[in-house]
């Protein structure tokens, strides 16, 4: 019988511009850029030179700390540019794609006959192992870790997030193969939403895979929230987390013998003319000019409005773990009479500053990128607890990180969290603190201390 976990805390933010479940054509450039920053915690070492010819599946860079962890090129072609930033930091490795694609053939494999070590070796050889993350520290994992369990969240509930159940249609065999491969390494927990169409499919995946239904508001889809309710992480333990699209990558590798990094993304937001889905390879440079409103200032976000990264132009590079591109108003040209004092009905607020609280089920708010306030002293108000459905004291943990008190950070559950868990808390925070940045700094500090 499928386990159901009901969450009481959280917050659903309903925004205008949800992607319709249909696919459209999007203009994509011929140059593909794989970005090391997409793989948190990896120190890249580039193993190609400008002018080199590569096939799809060849390594572009490796992890210096664990050289067996490679990162595969999404396309075949010629290495055009190794882009570097300050102190020669590698920003991206860019490949000019061939018109006729060539693939490294890693050979089809029957997952049922593989051992856990053989699965791990196959992923390492093909340059896909780096798509597996871990707790603690919320970083790309390494082959020396042995997880007590592996967690996959097939529920995406952040504002304007792409629907994985739409993405997986027609690829069910690859999803099953990827999950079965991971189950050879450790027990796999797959989380879905209430009334998910994937439940019956997942129950046929066999032993070693358990389906858990999460019934609740955002961030019920955050894998760390799910881990906290299924099998919390204690000091000294490691769990792996895998994006469901990465599971598709793994399944394609075993079913076809080739690296195929195609993913389905949503393009969404109030400033998008046709909110819908499109297919693109990781590293694609997507041109949005034809599908966004050019009147007024806009914020283009690689990801969802709460956890995504702002882009400086209307060309977005598809990230390794990205499931949507969002376009919302910038808001720097807004001219509102009397500001927040006006009793507004069309703007969303979790407090009763606006009268929109009278319509809790209203659909389609149009929010812009303004913070609407400045950073100030931290107020211990219980705001975080209302939207953080985890068995931790969020406000006290943030204070411990700011104070750089490692003992308190450990005692308050930092091993169980990643920055995105605090995205909603950051949204409702009266103090306007950059909570996700603070949590990332705390995790990096703790990892450095424990190395």
Task: Describe the protein's architecture and organization.
It is a single chain. The strands form 5 sheets. Strands 1-14-13-12-15-10-11 form a 7-stranded mixed beta sheet, sandwiched between helices. Strands 17-16-22-19-20 form a 5-stranded mixed beta sheet, with no helix packed on it. A hairpin with a 2-residue loop joins strand 6 and strand 7. With 451 residues, the chain is of the alpha+beta class.
Please report the distance between the alpha carbons of the first and last residues. Answer: 42 Å
Q: What's the total count of β strands?
A: 22
Shape: globular
Report the sheet with the most strands, covering strand number, pairing sense and barrel closure: 7 strands, mixed
Strand order of the largest sheet: 1-14-13-12-15-10-11
**Helix- and strand-based class?**
alpha+beta
Tally of individual helices: 11
Q: Poorly predicted ranges (pLDDT <50, ≥5 residues)?
A: none
Strand share of the residues? 15-25%
Average pLDDT reading: 93
Q: What kind of oligomer do you see?
A: single chain
Computed over alpha carbons, the radius of gyration is 22 Å
Could you estimate the helical fraction of the residues in percent? Answer: 10-25%
């Amino acid at each position: 019988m499928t386990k159901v976990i009901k969450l009481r805390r959280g917050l659903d933010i309903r925004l205008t511009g949800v992607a319709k479940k249909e696919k459209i054509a999007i203009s994509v450039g011929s140059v593909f850029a794989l970005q090391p920053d997409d793989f948190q915690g990896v120190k890249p070492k580039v193993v190609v030179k400008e002018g080199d010819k590569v096939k799809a599946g060849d390594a572009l860079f490796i992890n210096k700390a664990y050289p067996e962890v490679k990162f595969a090129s999404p396309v075949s072609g010629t290495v055009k540019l190794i882009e570097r930033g300050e102190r020669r930091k590698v920003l991206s490795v860019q490949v000019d794609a061939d018109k006729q694609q060539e693939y490294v053939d890693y050979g089809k494999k029957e997952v049922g006959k593989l051992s856990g070590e053989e699965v791990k070796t196959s992923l390492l050889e093909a340059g896909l192992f780096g798509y597996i993350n871990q707790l603690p520290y919320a970083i790309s994992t390494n082959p020396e870790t042995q997880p007590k369990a592996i967690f996959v969240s097939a529920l995406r509930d952040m504002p304007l997030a792409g629907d994985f159940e739409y993405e997986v249609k027609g690829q069910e065999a690859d999803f099953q193969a990827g999950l079965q491969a991971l189950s050879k390494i450790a027990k796999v927990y797959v989380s879905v939403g209430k009334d998910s169409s994937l439940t019956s499919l997942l129950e046929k995946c066999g032993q070693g895979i358990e389906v858990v239904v999460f019934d609740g508001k955002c961030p019920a889809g955050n894998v760390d929230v799910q881990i906290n309710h299924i099998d919390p992480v204690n000091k000294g333990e490691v769990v792996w987390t895998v994006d469901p699209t990465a599971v598709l990558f793994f399944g394609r590798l075993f079913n076809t013998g080739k690296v195929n990094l195609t993913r389905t993304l949503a393009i969404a937001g109030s400033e998008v003319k046709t909110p819908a889905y499109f297919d693109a390879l990781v590293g694609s440079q997507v041109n949005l000019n034809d599908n966004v409103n050019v009147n007024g200032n806009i914020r283009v976000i690689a990801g969802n409005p709460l956890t995504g990264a702002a882009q400086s132009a209307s060309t977005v590079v598809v990230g390794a773990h990205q499931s949507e591109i969002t376009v919302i108003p910038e808001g720097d040209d807004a001219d509102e009479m009397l500001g927040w004092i006006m009793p507004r009905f069309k703007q969303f607020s979790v407090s009763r500053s606006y009268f929109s609280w009278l319509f809790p089920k209203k659909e389609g708010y149009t929010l812009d990128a303004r913070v609407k306030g400045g950073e100030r002293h931290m107020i211990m108000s219980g705001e975080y607890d209302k939207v953080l459905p985890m068995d931790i004291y969020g406000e006290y943990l943030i204070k411990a990180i700011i104070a750089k008190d490692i003992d308190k950070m450990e005692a308050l559950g930092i091993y169980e969290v990643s920055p995105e868990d605090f995205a909603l808390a950051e949204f409702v925070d009266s103090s306007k603190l950059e909570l996700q940045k603070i949590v990332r700094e705390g995790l990096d500090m703790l990892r450095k201390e424990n190395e």
